[in-house]
Design a protein that fits this description.
Helices cover 7% and strands 32% of the residues. The chain contains two helices and eight strands, in the order E-H-E-E-H-E-E-E-E-E. Strands 6-7-1-2-5-8 form a six-stranded antiparallel sheet, with no helix packed on it. It has a two-stranded antiparallel ribbon with strand order 3-4. The longest helix has 5 residues, at 42-46. The radius of gyration is 20 Å and the shape is extended. The N and C termini lie far apart (62 Å). The mean pLDDT is 81.
């Protein structure tokens, strides 16, 4: 068969991959009371010091060096595998973060904020029945 013309090819699906200790947040537009019932003082919202939003994706975390015994036996399977300290933020959490640390991006017509994990002040999480202490 003949090769298909390029315009008939299905559009490859794209996804955002968050790297390192960054978090992708869908921002909530400037309300003083967030949808999770957390109250932000007007001064904080007005001067845009802090903002809230829902965590859409997280990076793998900070890479840590593997234990030293792997260095002496490089032939072992998995010796080169990177290990990460996982982030506290999870998908679905509601995050309050420093606005000035956030970088705004638009991906496929939606507005997101990329926030370093260190800029997150608090997380609000819905606890499932299995997660309660």
């Amino acid at each position: 068969g003949l090769p298909q013309p390029v315009e008939d090819m299905p559009e490859p699906r794209k996804r955002l991959i968050v790297v390192g200790d960054r978090v992708l947040i869908q921002p909530e537009e400037g309300e003083d009371r967030t949808k999770v019932g957390l109250y932000l003082p007007a001064t904080a919202v007005d001067n845009q010091a802090v903002q809230g939003g829902t965590v859409i994706a997280t990076g793998p975390g900070n890479a840590v060096s593997a234990p030293t015994e792997l260095d002496q036996e490089p032939w072992k399977i998995g010796a080169a595998e990177a290990r990460y300290v996982p982030l506290q933020a999870r998908i679905g959490d509601y995050a309050i973060f420093f606005r000035r640390a956030a970088v705004e991006i638009t991906f496929e017509g939606k507005r997101y904020l990329v926030v370093p994990h260190a800029a997150i002040l608090t997380l609000v999480r819905e606890e499932g029945p299995d997660e309660l202490d």
